[in-house]
From TrEMBL:
DUF6444 domain location: 38-102
Signal peptide residues on this chain, from the entry's feature table: none
Source superkingdom: Bacteria
Provenance organism: Mucilaginibacter antarcticus
Name under which the protein is recorded: IS66 family transposase
Residue ranges annotated for the Transposase IS66 central domain, each copy included: 180-445
Length: 477
């Protein structure tokens, strides 16, 4: 092969290879487009999978009273077991070592003594009435007599003096009708209806079948109205003391009145409970009840927006509600952020519960308190994964109110939770469960008045029925 043929063959080969290379480059470009398109699809599908996993997690972990602000009354089914905020103590259930038990004790002085002495020999039949008896043992039976109504008749007379003046007696202040029910029946009616939640029909049955009194349901309503009027001065005094308190918890709950939703609000502390009924769940109820706000009070609540608008020294958000929110986020997102925040809050509560801890003190306690505040601030500023939408939403909310998280570490007698307020309004739910909704606004207002008086009496350690009897003996204004 000549030199020219070789050159020609090489040129043809180069041209062929160039064409192949060009084709390969075009194919590679197409592959890059395909890969880029697939990468976009993978990214889109990954986001979609994250969204679907979040939706599935929310579906599997429905909100209930253990992981959200949802009240127990609207739980769809029983919450999963072991979801309580209370941690295991490691102790066995029941009474602990050193616990003093109690049993029914003998009365020091019996009201009636019945002696059982044999009168004849059970073997031979001889008379034993003259034989001295030897005491062996004794047993007591505690019972109550059958309750009966007592009718007291008041008669007034007059006398003529030698001077010619005729002096007439007057009926007692509480005897103002020809025939009426007395103060103890008033107190008992209030006790049965408000303290024991009995509906009018069952109160009527109790009076008829047990007491032998035929009182209509309208008569029961009248007794309650008369008693409520007598209790109003004490109710007003409770409000006055509430306004002068240094710490209050507040909450609200819905209730049906004549088929329409109204709201019962409470403001309470360890000594007082004040309840009002309102058509609104908004700020105007607070404004109407406390026009000047509560400027001397640290207000504890569950982050309901109207409470933040109430003028107060400071606010403490309920950590029990926050724990439930964090539990839900852990269930849905398996979030380390929520778990870390829970641990910090538990450390804060443990610090507050330590013997000798003084919110106004200095030294190591102050350092610990500052360290906790800094750690929480860091968590609230921490960048969260985009897929943890619930955690991001809660984090944004907490950033705005971060100075209300550890308020209880800076004030005496400020609790870290609002459980006291929930206990105060739980009576409204118990009332509805047993008796149903309220028939009238007057009835609901009366229940708020009497429940405030009863709960405050319980907190003072006094006997409820005795206190109601004292109120019943007062003259209505």
């Amino acid at each position: 092969m000549s030199k020219d043929d070789i050159i020609k063959a090489l040129a043809e080969l180069n041209e062929k290879q160039a064409g192949q290379i060009s084709a390969l480059l075009v194919h590679a470009g197409n592959l890059e487009l395909i890969i880029e398109k697939q990468a976009g699809q993978i990214s889109t599908l990954t986001l979609r999978v994250d969204d679907l996993e979040t939706e599935l997690s929310v579906y599997k972990n429905r909100k209930n009273s253990n992981n959200s602000h949802t009240p127990p009354s609207v739980d769809l089914g029983k919450p999963k077991r072991n979801q309580s905020l209370r941690e295991k103590s490691g102790k066995k259930a029941g009474g602990q070592p050193g616990h003093e038990g109690s049993t029914l004790a003998f009365w020091a002085a019996a009201d009636e003594i019945i002696i059982h002495v044999p009168q004849y020999c059970h073997r031979c039949g001889d008379d034993l009435t003259q034989v001295p008896a030897i005491a062996l043992s004794k047993r007591q039976v505690i019972d109550i007599p059958k309750p009966v109504a007592i009718c007291t008749e008041h008669q007034i007379f007059s006398k003529a003096c030698s001077c010619g003046h005729i002096t007439k007696c007057e009926f007692p202040i509480n005897v103002n009708a020809n025939i009426q029910y007395g103060c103890h029946i008033e107190a008992l009616t209030a006790y049965l209806n408000v303290r024991q939640y009995m509906p009018f029909g069952r109160i009527q049955e109790f009076y008829s079948k047990v007491m032998g009194l035929e009182i209509s349901q309208g008569g029961i309503v009248g007794l309650l109205q008369r008693f409520t009027a007598k209790a109003l001065p004490m109710y007003q005094e409770i409000k006055n003391r509430i306004e002068k308190s240094t710490c209050l918890g507040t909450d609200e709950t819905g209730a049906k009145i004549n088929g329409k939703t109204h709201w019962f609000w409470t403001w309470q502390n360890n000594a007082l409970t004040f309840i009002v009924q309102s058509q609104s769940r908004g700020y105007k109820t607070i404004q109407k009840t406390f026009p000047e706000g509560l400027p001397d009070v640290v207000l504890v609540h569950d982050r309901w927006a109207p409470h933040f608008r109430c003028e107060a020294v400071h606010h403490q958000i309920c950590l029990a509600h926050l724990f439930r929110d964090l539990n839900y986020i852990v269930q849905v997102h398996a979030s380390d952020w929520a778990g870390s925040l829970k641990l910090l809050l538990k450390r804060a509560i443990a610090l507050n519960n330590e013997a000798g801890y003084d919110p106004a003190g200095a030294g190591s306690d102050n350092m610990t308190r500052c360290e906790l505040a800094d750690s929480i601030a860091n968590l609230l500023g921490h960048k969260l994964p985009d897929k943890d939408k619930l955690a991001i939403k809660l984090q944004k909310k907490l950033r705005k109110i971060s100075h209300y998280i550890l308020c209880f570490l800076y004030y005496n007698d400020v609790p870290p939770d609002n459980n006291g307020s929930e206990r105060a309004i739980r009576n409204i739910k118990v009332k509805q469960k047993i008796s149903g909704g309220f028939r009238s606004i007057d009835g609901a207002d009366g229940f708020a008045v009497l429940r405030s008086v009863i709960d405050t009496t319980i907190k003072s350690g006094n006997d409820v029925f005795y206190a109601l009897s004292l109120i019943a003996n007062l003259g209505a204004e």
